[in-house]
Amino acid sequence: MLQRGAYGSVNFAANRSLFAVSAFAARANCFLSSRKKPLKIQQKTMSSRFIPSKRYDGVDRNVWIEFTTLAAECKAVNLGQGFPDFSPPEHIKQALADVAAVDSVATYQYTRGVGHPRLVKTMSKLFSPLFGIEIDALKDILITIGGYGALYASISAFIEHEDEVIIVEPFFDCYEPMVKIAGGIPKFIPLKPKSKESAGTSAGWTLDRDELEKMFNKNTKAIIINTPNNPLGKVYSREELELIAEMCIKYDCLCISDEVYEWLLFEDNKHVRIASLPGMWDRTLTIGSAGKTFSVTGWKLGWAIGPSQLIKHLQTVWQNSVYTCPTPLQEAVARGFETEMSRMGTDESYFKILPKQLQAKRDRMVQVLKDFGLKPIIPQGGYFLIADISSLNVDLSDSKDSGDAWDYRLVKWMTRNKKLATIPTTAFYCKEHRHLTEKYIRFCFCKEDETIEKMEKILKEWSKSM
User: Model-level pTM?
Assistant: First the structure.
């Protein structure tokens, strides 16, 4: 029956509600009655055509997923994954809060696909004097999803079938699969200590000139370097970069320079941008990261800087894959850079505060590892140090991971049995060169003092049982 209002008219709103409730009840009764019958389970079948592209063969294993998952499962102290477990600077947090508080439609919608205008303009002002060239904000910069995105765009844009790419070891593990996926052929050259005496610091690990030049040939399309290096912490000197530049120019090859730790330098080490060397701007793509710069790795914002004739091809890759990055994060990073530019060279600059904090954490971790009997290699910059663990007398003969390299098995054993998670160093080497550092593991020291104290306690307890 239709309900009528005070004046006898039909109350349509009330009746719409009644009709809706009745319809819902009817549908619910039908569903419940149908549940009395057993459900017919559709058999899962997979078409033989649904197989992954061959370009992904052999690149399915990922050290971060594997060991981060294991650390979480074992509730271990995580000194493996490279993220700070302390808060970023107040001004970068406030910048994001201010962006979120502004009632502006533009803040919540797409921004310019290849880089938020305010961010690229600010970066142009910041980096132009550092590179020694006037950087065109709209043509010479691409904003990406982390340094990962910039590396992917760089490699995808220029590497083709059977192009050779020289990768300096140790290398961040995504370089090799990205080159392979693009159809390229990775060629590896390791940094080596000049002598046993120099092996204790990352500065003592260098490239041999003759060995480096032999890597170049008519098929060489690019070389990938990382300074400061992950995991070694090596900061390339001007002389070392000049050698690499000489080879790039002589053999007409591209340089992809991963410089995500550019502000994290210890003691009197200086960061030299290879793109600033004579003849290198026009053949260099420089990779950077807001996550590493401002201790906000979860923001996943990075960039590539280079000449427009190169960057335009990265932009083509980007517009046909990811397209753009989150607008609020780009706006917040722009404001963060603006604040840092106003504080540049002062004790208030985060670019000065963070390296000082990290150096103290590095020194503390070095001492803890030495007290335990390990031999750490002192890094010149970055988040990490690697340590010689050959003195550890651990029986891994019964390890269920017997097919893995020794350092993989040890790190898994440590994570499960000592609740201390690190990363095996062979993850940063090709198969042929893994024997060079199989007795090293990587520790991350960009952690709260309490985290390093937990590590120290674990190692002290371990020492008692040795």
Answer: 0.89
